Amino acid sequence: MLAVDPVLAELPSGLAKTDEKQTPAHYETPGFGSGGSFGAGVSVTFTSAASIPDVYRMIGENAVRNGWVAKAADSTGMTNRWLKTYPDGSPATLILSCKDQNATTTTRSCTLDGGI
Fold first, then answer.
1. Order of strands across the sheet with 41-48?
2. Rounded mean pLDDT, 59-68
3. What's the rounded Cα separation, in Å, for the pair 105 and 7?
């Protein structure tokens, strides 16, 4: 469900996917650390020559187009978290983060993490 959501599966033009990791839902037996059920997750890393505000705008517009609702903003005031409830009732969260937002490099690396 999350892995095929267009917001993670089809990045907007100008964003180049460099890596994708999928973690299936699973159960870990409690031991010395925490245990229990963990939901599925997808992490997509991408690069872009666009400015950080443009990257956040493109991801945000794509998220809203695909049924996600803005939830929170980062310290710069840019929306970086969205929520969605799938038809089966599963709640999902989407979080965008970019490395060193003040860097002057021409290509930026960002990660879009989705979890249920």
1. 16-23, 41-48, 108-115, 91-98, 79-85, 69-73
2. 98
3. 26
